[in-house]
Design brief:
Length: about 160
């Protein structure tokens, strides 16, 4: 069970569905790497060649990129830019916002095309939004999300930890 966003909990069933969507996207778009992170920069799932990339840095830098771009959008009166594209010499990065909560990142090279990537990402994003909807429904059925595991820790506990 994983918590992310506001009051959303991901159980194994949703995680498996997300992984299936990412696997299919990775193959259908002929991508090098497909990555799903939350807007705080936490990696949720990935598919592809992770050995050649620092996943933690990729997740946090992507979230920072989206946050900066959101600031630019607001400056010109837009709500957000839901798709970002960075073209490199060898590799390209396609970033899209899914359900206003998640960031879908796809890294691809000349074996694919931007048109194919956009087509496949659009379908995958719709499937991921269905998973988010299912998670929100479960959360509503079960009432409030469980309390934070840190809820019972007091300031005194923290002070005691550092004074011992």
């Amino acid at each position: 069970m994983t918590m992310f966003g506001s009051n959303l909990i991901m159980y194994e069933e949703e995680f498996d569905r997300i992984n299936a969507v990412l696997s299919r996207l990775w193959m259908d778009a002929n991508a090098k790497l497909v990555f799903l992170v939350d807007k705080n920069g936490q990696q949720i799932a990935a598919k592809g060649d992770l050995d050649k990339v620092d996943a933690t840095s990729l997740a946090s830098l992507t979230a920072g990129n989206v946050a900066a771009t959101d600031g630019l959008a607001k400056l010109i009166g837009e709500k957000e830019f839901s798709i970002l594209f960075h073209e490199g010499e060898r590799d390209n990065i396609h970033i899209s916002i899914v359900g206003q909560r998640l960031i879908l990142v796809l890294i691809f090279d000349e074996r694919s095309s931007l048109g194919l990537v956009r087509l496949r990402v659009r379908k995958a994003a719709a499937e991921l939004e269905e998973v988010l909807t299912q998670m929100a429904s479960k959360a509503a059925e079960q009432g409030e999300a469980p309390a934070s595991p840190f809820a019972e820790i007091t300031d005194e506990d923290i002070d005691a930890l550092f004074t011992e």
